[in-house]
UniProtKB/TrEMBL annotation:
It is an enzyme of class 2 (transferase). It comes from the Bacteria. RNA polymerase that catalyzes the synthesis of short RNA molecules used as primers for DNA polymerase during DNA replication. This is DNA primase. The lineage of its organism: Bacteria, Pseudomonadati, Pseudomonadota, Alphaproteobacteria, Rhodobacterales. GO terms for cellular component: cytoplasm; DNA-directed RNA polymerase complex; primosome complex.
Length: 647
């Protein structure tokens, strides 16, 4: 409906934003200045301990410096109470004592009908609560008592009982003057197709009222007392009041509790929620007998940005977690994710609380794993990756999951975590060998050292190539790996990369690919490199000496990576400069014997010495003999190798 001009301005001027927000937060009076309408509190939209949520009464706005939530009084009501805009306007109008403008006749009729149905549901709630105290409900009361629910808990959750009679509720409501069509429309009775007399939907069941975030009873859930009943749990059907895929059990109280720095727990059923709340975990909700829908997930995120999903400890619970994970992946964002609490085998939250108490549940919730860990578990658990094809299949599945994440930055972080998990998973386990002792010594478990080099040792790069070539090749690999892991440094070192022509074909292919990247390169270069360069990049990152290098291991330390790159480029260019000087000097040795050549050789030696005075610790070096080349140069100078000897 449309509102007349100035109505909202008048509404906002009559109701201060602090009076509405103050119902959901506790003001930090040390930081607030009430006289100036300046208020501070911990944010109700994300969990924090400091007061970063600011409310300005004079301007009528709120803003959180932590999660950046902002808006006016109406926005706050919509977000915290899960209201529609017009519903929030009506609430504020009642607060201000203002009369709402005349509504559209059809909308007014629909709203009036919903209000009438809600009244019918309240009448049914009172009837069911009364019946729980009847003699027919003895078994139901015993069952509830056995589940640890006292009278206070029964009252808190308005638990009732539906007699095992065909028309008990029907007779009660019609006798109170409720029209039959409303009873049927509210889902409380079923009208037979043959035109017979309607009968109660809930019979012989413990009843759990389901309320929306406004507190209206919109549906019922019923647990059968007969073990042979066709359905153990039965919910109300879809009605004008009740949309099962858009509702959560205990949503209203959970929203109020979650604003108190309490994690939101999503359990499976009514009894789980009740047990959690009674144990002190007041921010607990449950879907209504089916898998969580997208609307329910968005509703959960409006209550808490990172809820804990408590999965029953069986295969069915795990499958439900996997389905929810696939539903959530395209919707994830920096402030919107899930954690999963994996319960013990064949146990639900109620079982954990009854056997281990609140301490056991606290420990499980604290140990809840992020979504990325559950994704990795699904793709690897119980599988064998003993062939390239199987490992490639894992890569494809992980890549398909990453493609579902629409947030670019978040997708990059997920890719990084999955690569780390993959590296740890496939990293060969070091065998625990008995220590050996030097010759002439012995001890418990003495094992002599191997007489010959092991095959694994003979196959290494250091054992198979020329020393100088290996050192340069390893340095090229370190440089390329640092750039791959820290793509933000590419722009700063672009001129150095242009100079550093690689001596190995694969390295040069990768270098050229990095030079050809667009200016706004991806946070994950492996996602955008062409195939030949991608294969080389993957090979380099898997090399042992690369994986253990500090700038590669410490992916969040950009400063260390920058310093290491400066060092490695300096060493690379210095070594190549010295080699060029030596080649030119050698060509002149046969014909030249003057002070100019001596000066050039001394300069080459001094250049080498300066390059070796590293600005980094020895741990960042590749391990070559720093003094070897400079010592050889000094020997050549002192022996005057260029002087022609008499024959």
């Amino acid at each position: 409906m449309s509102l007349p001009p100035g109505f909202l301005d008048e509404l906002r001027s009559r109701v201060s934003i602090s009076s509405i927000v103050g119902r959901k937060v506790t003001w930090d009076m040390r930081k607030s200045n009430q006289a100036k309408g300046d208020y501070w509190a911990p944010c109700p939209f994300h969990q924090e301990k400091s007061a970063s949520f600011h409310v300005d009464d004079r301007k009528g706005f709120y803003y959180c410096f932590g999660c950046h939530a902002k808006g006016d009084t109406l926005n706050f009501l919509c977000e915290t109470e899960n209201m529609g805009f017009m519903e929030a306007v009506e609430v504020m109008a009642r607060e201000a004592g203002m009369t709402m403008p005349a509504r559209d006749p059809q909308a007014a009729a629909k709203a009036d009908r919903l209000g009438e149905l809600a009244e019918v549901m309240e009448g049914a709630t009172r009837f069911f609560k009364t019946q729980l105290n009847s003699s027919a409900a003895t078994a139901a009361r015993d069952y509830l008592r056995g589940r640890g629910l006292d009278q206070k808990a029964l009252e808190r959750f308005e638990i009732g009982f539906a007699p095992d009679a065909r028309q008990a509720l029907w007779a009660h409501l019609t006798g109170a003057g409720v029209s039959p069509d409303k009873i049927i429309e509210a889902g409380l009775a079923i009208a037979p197709d043959d035109g017979g007399k309607p009968y109660d939907r809930f019979r012989g069941r413990i009843i759990f009222p389901i309320r929306d975030t406004r507190g209206r009873c919109i549906a019922f859930g019923g647990r059968a007392m007969d073990p042979n009943a066709r359905a153990k749990y039965l919910n109300s059907p879809e009605t004008p009041l009740f949309d099962k895929g858009r509702s959560l059990y205990n949503a209203g109280p959970a929203r109020a509790a979650s604003g108190k720095d309490t994690p939101l727990i999503v359990a499976e059923g009514y009894m789980d929620v009740i047990a959690l709340v009674e144990a002190g975990f007041e921010a607990a909700v449950a879907p209504l007998g089916t898998a969580i829908t997208e609307d329910q997930l968005r509703m959960i995120w409006r209550i808490s940005p990172e809820p804990v999903i408590a999965l029953d400890g069986d295969q069915a619970g795990l499958r439900a977690g996997y389905r929810l994970m696939d539903l959530a992946l395209p919707l994830l964002g920096p402030e919107q994710s899930l954690r999963f609490c994996l319960l013990p085998e064949k146990m639900d939250p109620d079982d954990v609380l009854r056997t281990g108490g609140t301490g056991a549940m606290h420990k499980l919730i604290k140990g809840a794993v992020p979504l990325v860990k559950l994704l990795w578990q699904r793709e690897t658990e119980g599988q064998v990756f003993d062939s390239p094809e199987r490992r490639a299949g894992l890569d494809d599945r992980l890549r398909a999951a990453l493609d579902k994440i629409t947030n670019k930055s978040l997708r990059g972080h997920y890719a990084e975590d999955l690569r780390r998990l993959q590296h740890a998973f496939f990293k060969p386990q070091r065998s625990r060998q008995t220590p050996w002792f030097p010759k002439g010594r012995s001890g418990p478990g003495f094992t002599a050292p191997p007489a010959h080099a092991l095959q694994a040792t003979r196959a290494t790069l250091l054992a198979n190539g020329e020393g100088a070539d290996i050192a340069e090749r390893m340095r090229e690999e370190i440089i390329l790996a640092i750039l791959l892991v820290h793509p933000a440094l590419l722009e700063h070192f672009m001129s150095d990369l242009e100079r550093a022509e690689m001596r190995t074909a694969g390295h040069e292919t990768l270098r050229q690919a990095l030079l050809m990247l667009p200016e706004r390169q991806s946070d994950d270069l492996l996602q955008i490199l062409p195939d030949p360069a991608l294969a080389e990049a993957t090979r380099i990152l898997e090399l042992g000496h690369v994986a253990i290098a500090p700038p590669v291991r410490n992916r969040n330390d950009g400063d260390l990576a920058r310093k290491c790159l400066e060092e490695e480029f300096a060493k690379l260019f210095s070594r190549r400069g010295v080699a060029l000087e030596l080649r030119e000097a050698t060509e002149d040795l046969a014909d030249l014997a003057d002070e100019g050549l001596t000066w050039r050789l001394r300069q080459a030696a001094e250049t080498r010495n300066r390059a070796e005075r590293s600005r980094l610790s020895d741990s960042a070096d590749l391990g070559e003999d720093r003094a070897a080349l400079s010592g050889e140069l000094q020997r050549l100078i002192e022996s005057e190798v260029w002087v022609k000897r008499k024959k």
